[in-house]
Amino acid sequence: MLDDRAKLLLKTLVERYIAEGQPVGSRTLSRAPGLDLSPATIRNVMSDLEGLGLITSPHTSAGRIPTARGYRLFVDTMLTAQREHMHAPSHLPPDQPQKVIANAANLLSNLSQFVGVVMTPRRASVFKQIEFLRLSDRRLLVIIVSPDGDVQNRVIFPEADYTQSQLVEASNYINAHYAGLTIEQVRDRLQSEVEKLRGEIAALMQAAVKVSSEVLTEAQEDDVVISGERNLLSVTDFSSDMGQLRRAFELFEQKAQLMRLLDVSSKAEGVRIFIGGESQVVPIEELSIVSANYEVDGQVVGTLGVIGPTRMPYERMIQIVDITSRLVSNALSHRK
To answer: Is the dihedral of CA 31, 35, 37, 40 positive or negative?
Structure first.
């Protein structure tokens, strides 16, 4: 355990490094308000902190910088969440979920000046409405509306040709008898009822189930919205290390790893902080992620956050993420 003097010195060092981006030496710390320690005492305490793996000395400087372990101790025990005035909107306009999510990612990026990421709402495999539109011979457009108003469509090529009146009759029957059920429930009922249904309705039902399954699968594979990647180009920590910058952009392009990371954070309450280098959760040493869940009508359906340099102003990022998660929850819950 650290004594109060060591904790105060570590806190001061981390805050100074976050603010200035330069290794912090004992002479700089001796002039910091509130420490009231001699440079010699500070050097001794810094040596102890280095021995504990909380700070380290870059080879080009006699000063010290925090390690991932030092950042973790700082964010877990030393942050003082001060509410600062922020030019954030009082609400996000209720809209299609895709627009709300895109607006939220842009808001996170603009407020933080880093990268905003939002996992789109997890979709239940339920449809509210299905419509069929005849495009040409044996070419149909299937329109699927989810309970939250999200609209997806696919073109299919059935073996038989259908008139538009047949398609309307089929969609009316499907919506009247199957709307609100999960795709699995529809599939099970279809197997037991297929012999009772007229041929065209049974065939269109099977096509609708197949398309719905494909839509939901694809939606889950591409459900991270990212905004502000270019902001990292102006961050000193990355502009001086193109290797780190390249790995960061690869993370954004792949999305799968980003999805796994956001999924980990979705299992906790409140704002979470993941620090690069402390585990395999964040694969890039110079990146940290501040994230929080958002809800729809009281149910957690997704995660959002800010990705930036490990040397980021954590108090401000926590506030930005917390505010945005509340705005998204309200916008999606109050959408008419």
So the answer is: negative
Domain with CATH 3.30.450.40 in the chain: 97-121+223-333
Q: Please tell me the number of Cα atoms within 13 Å of 185 on its side-chain side.
A: 11
Strand order in the sheet with 151-156: 129-136, 139-145, 151-156
Residue 102 CA: distances (Å) to CA of 24, 116, 151, 218: 39, 10, 16, 18
Kindly indicate the confidence band of residue 66, based on its pLDDT and cuts at 50, 70 and 90. very high
The fold for domain 129-221 equals Enolase-like; domain 1 (3.30.390)
Rg over CA atoms, the chain: 26
pLDDT tens for residues 262-306? 777 666 678 989 888 776 667 778 888 999 999 888 888 889 999
Interatomic CA distance for residues 39 and 37, integer angstroms = 7
Higher local confidence (pLDDT), 80 or 248 = 248
Q: For domain 4-77, give the fold.
A: Arc Repressor Mutant, subunit A (1.10.10)
Quote the Cα angle for 70-74-75, to 5°.
Answer: 120
Please tell me the predicted confidence (pLDDT) of residue 153. Answer: 83
Measure CA of the first residue to CA of the last residue in the chain; give whole Å. Answer: 53
Per-state percent for the chain, helix, strand, coil, to nearest 5: 50, 20, 35
Report the alpha-carbon distance of residue 310 to residue 287 in Å, rounded.
5
CATH 1.10.10.10 residue ranges for the chain: 4-77
The length of the chain is 336
Q: What does the block give as tokens for 256?
A: 């799968």
Give the domain 97-121+223-333 fold. Beta-Lactamase (3.30.450)
**Which residues does 263 contact at the CB level (< 8 Å), separation at least 6?**
119, 303
Q: How confident is the model at residue 60 (pLDDT cuts 50, 70, 90)?
A: low
Residue 143 three-state SS: strand
d(Cα 19, Cα 16) in Å, to the nearest integer?
Answer: 5
